[in-house]
User: Which sequence fits this backbone?
């Protein structure tokens, strides 16, 4: 084999290797979205107590004997979450082996690693403190909100890791400039608050199912209703406020012709999420609609994080 053929083969092999890491990163992100959706099934079916107040063991044992459906649902969630930890740790190792010192993907994958362990801690506390099933305490609402915010931050960190690995430009800290970070971070925090209020609304719908849309609206403003029912209105109101940030981000993106494609995706997902939100309310939040609504929220969040990165983090030394 000639030296030129050897060089071509080496370049091709390196190219395939460099392509595999971003694909793996996106795959880890997709898998995490599926785990999050299954977690919503656990909550909506009140299966969080399926393993009792035991963690990490289920009902105090390793092998279940004649498990209930709730036990199977909760156990499946724990096992899938365990796979997530392994996948993110593997991603952490690969990113540090394949990228240069200072690459932004290193920062975001470390953040994802810390967040997945915090995710496990919050999940364990929900079980150990018995904040599951029909528990209606404010403590459960606080932990669920923290859990949801941590989940979104985790998805955001994984999305940024995959994004920085996928771009052709050099994305290390010395070769990028940051633009409009303050409004972008403020807007993303507002979106997190929408997610947290959505968790409270979903918990209220699970614990206090309504017979009709009219009955649900009446309960929202009744002094005799639970506090969870009376704070449901915060979710749509906060969603409208966060929409101001999305409009700002879209406007900036459309002014940059290179970002119009991603901005169009955000616009489509935003419209879809609004439709799903209305349908969820009109149909009185059936399980399948709750899952679709959460899926739309996760996809919109990921798209917003990536678009924010494209607008606010600009490489100064493009490779090609």
Assistant:
């Amino acid at each position: 084999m000639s030296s030129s053929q050897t060089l071509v083969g080496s370049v091709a092999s390196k190219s395939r290797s460099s392509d595999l890491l971003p694909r793996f990163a996106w795959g880890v992100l997709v898998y995490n979205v599926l785990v999050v959706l299954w977690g919503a099934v656990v909550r909506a079916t009140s299966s969080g107590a399926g393993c009792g107040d035991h963690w990490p063991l289920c009902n105090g044992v390793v092998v279940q004997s004649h498990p209930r459906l709730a036990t199977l649902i909760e156990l499946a969630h724990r096992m899938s979450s365990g796979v997530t930890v392994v996948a993110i740790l593997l991603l952490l190792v690969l990113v540090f082996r394949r990228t240069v010192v200072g690459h932004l993907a290193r920062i975001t994958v470390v953040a994802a690693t810390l967040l997945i362990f915090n995710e496990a801690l919050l999940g364990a506390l929900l079980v150990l403190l018995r904040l599951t099933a029909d528990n209606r305490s404010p403590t459960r609402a606080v932990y669920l909100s923290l859990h949801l915010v941590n989940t979104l931050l985790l998805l955001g960190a994984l999305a940024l890791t995959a994004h920085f690995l996928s771009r052709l430009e050099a994305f290390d800290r010395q070769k990028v400039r940051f633009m409009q970070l303050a409004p972008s971070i403020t807007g993303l925090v507002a979106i997190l608050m929408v997610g947290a209020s959505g968790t409270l609304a979903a918990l209220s719908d699970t614990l206090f199912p309504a017979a009709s849309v009219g009955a649900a609206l009446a309960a929202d403003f009744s002094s005799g209703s639970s506090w969870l029912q009376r704070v449901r209105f915060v979710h749509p109101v906060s969603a409208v406020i966060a929409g101001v940030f999305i409009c700002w981000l879209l406007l900036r993106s459309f002014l940059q012709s290179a970002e119009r494609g991603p901005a169009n995706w955000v616009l489509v997902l935003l419209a879809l999420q609004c439709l799903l939100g209305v349908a969820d309310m009109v149909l009185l939040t059936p399980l399948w609609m709750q899952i679709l609504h959460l899926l739309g929220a996760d996809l919109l969040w990921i798209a917003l994080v990536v678009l924010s990165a494209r607008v606010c983090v600009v490489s100064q030394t493009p490779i090609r």
Summary: The longest strand covers residues 176-178. The CA atoms of residues 115 and 137 lie 25 Å apart. The two ends are 30 Å apart (CA to CA). Confidence is low (pLDDT under 50) at residues 1-17.
